[in-house]
Design goal:
Blueprint: H1 3-19, H2 32-44, H3 58-69, E1 80-85, H4 88-101, E2 120-127, H5 133-150, E3 154-158, H6 159-167, H7 172-178, E4 184-193
Antiparallel strand pairs: 1-2, 2-4, 3-4
Length: about 210
């Protein structure tokens, strides 16, 4: 990571984590520089699928997740539950269970685990009795992803990993260990780790945006 990128991420981390302070009062104005840093943070984010073995400290994870739960959510119901797995042994055990029922998963190039080889994964469940809960989970996830990137930590949203766990009889004991509350169901996972790649941005469809007069 070059020096300019380190400086940028350092500024972004300060802004993001300050914004996640529940005791912070909103300011009347936002400086142009601060706004630019946040915008650049969003635009520089990439889905990361190659990670270093470096462990993310629990203190760092707690700061990131604190930003996550301060995302907007319907009626402040906070209709999500989060489970964090950063144990290599547990990640390996879940992977082995899933692969037992679906061996083809392990045939992928460079395969180590079902979470794109990340050293940490955040599992997010939603309240199935609330029809807006999945939206809340998406907002939660975006805050987690941006807060992580502000600290130089890459991420990747994983719907397939959640589906594999849900559909795998051998993985059921691990799903049970997550102990989600009644009526809560695993929705998706977020892989987290220090990036070992710098992928280029993929094109986005500007034509999907239309203004109505």
């Amino acid at each position: 990571m070059n020096n300019m990128k380190k400086i940028f991420l350092g500024l972004a981390a300060t802004l993001m984590l300050t914004a996640c302070n529940e005791n912070r009062q909103p300011e009347a104005t936002t400086s142009v520089d601060s706004a630019s840093v946040v915008t650049d943070l969003m635009m520089s984010r990439r889905s990361i699928r190659a990670y270093k073995d470096s462990i993310i400290s629990r203190d760092t994870l707690n700061e990131i997740l604190k930003c996550g739960i301060h995302a907007p959510n319907g009626q402040n119901l906070q209709s999500y539950e989060i489970r964090v797995i950063d144990s290599p042994a547990l990640i390996d055990s879940i992977t082995q269970a899933v692969v037992k029922d679906n061996p083809k998963i392990a045939e992928r190039k460079g395969f180590k685990n079902i979470f794109v080889n990340a050293p940490c994964v955040v599992c997010i469940a939603y309240d199935t009795t609330y029809d807006m809960a999945q939206i809340d989970c998406g907002l939660l996830g975006e805050n987690i992803i941006l807060a992580a990137w502000a600290k130089g930590i890459g991420s990747c949203c994983l719907g397939s990993s959640a589906r594999w766990i849900l559909d795998s009889p051998s993985a059921k004991p691990y799903l049970d260990r997550m102990a989600f509350s009644k009526n809560y169901k695993l929705l998706y996972c977020i892989a987290l780790g220090y990036p070992d790649e710098s992928p280029e941005a993929k094109p986005r469809r500007q034509d999907m945006i239309k203004f109505m007069d």
